[in-house]
Amino acid sequence: MSEEHTAPQKDVDPKLLEVLVCPVTRGPLTYDRKANELVSKQARLAFPIREGVPIMLPDEARELTDAEAR
């Protein structure tokens, strides 16, 4: 088997981004294209996006560092 498994990152549908809110705070999210995450500064969480699908589960989110939360 070859190791050519790195598929290009899929962008999230912009219309979806307009309606999504943080599942913890119900506050706004910002899209971090470089990290491929949706970020809630209020909740201090970054939700991953996998194959173009936001994973909006708090258990799957990464906690923001103090610097990221500012």
UniProtKB/TrEMBL annotation:
Organism annotation: Hyphobacterium lacteum
InterPro entries, sorted: Trm112-like
Entry similarity comment: Belongs to the UPF0434 family.
PANTHER family in the record: PROTEIN PREY, MITOCHONDRIAL, ZGC:162634
Name by which UniProt lists this protein: UPF0434 protein V0U79_08910
